[in-house]
Amino acid sequence: VVIGSDCPLLSLETLQSAIDSINRGESVLGPALQGGIYLFGVPKGVYLDYKDIFSGDSKEAYLFCNAMSNAGKKVNILNFYPDIDLPEDVELLASLLKAASLGKGCVKPLFRIPPNTHRVLSSSK
Questions:
Q1: I want to staple 18 with a disulfide (CB 3.0 to 4.6 A). Which of 28, 90, 95, 100 is the partner?
Q2: H or E element: which one contains 76?
Q3: pLDDT tens digits, one per residue of 70-113
Q4: Residue 11, number of CB atoms within 10 A of its CB
């Protein structure tokens, strides 16, 4: 399993789900809200030509799924999470944090905010 360093909301539960998928012989994809990938993994024995997939554009998730389909592998798609590539992405993350804090007790959150991520983003205005 390969994870990006730019996805501050990635949880231990999501990472465990990815590992479980690999152990079942499935590939796994963590799609970013912006169209890229924050996490991926392929089972042992599956060849993946990285240079044709990871080009930094919004087609990465599609290209990964297509490559796995061509290899005959099921893809377990995890929750969408924002990753941080541009200043606008920090603004999106701050908006999500604000919405999550307003909805406490009202709605089931789609993601769990790691405490240190929440602390850092809450302190920066």
A1: 28
A2: strand 75-77
A3: 888 899 999 888 888 788 888 887 787 777 666 555 444 555 56
A4: 15
Task: Return the ∠ at Cα 71 (arms to 78 and 73), rounded to 5°.
Answer: 40
HEC letters along 1-55: CEECCCCCCCCHHHHHHHHHHHHCCCEEEEEECCCCEEEEECCCCCCCCHHHCCC
Nearest in space to 84 (alpha carbons), one of 100, 75, 74, 97: 97
Q: Residue 69 is encoded by which pair of tokens? A: 């389909």
Owner of token pair 């991520």: 117
Q: Tokens representing 90?
A: 């920090």
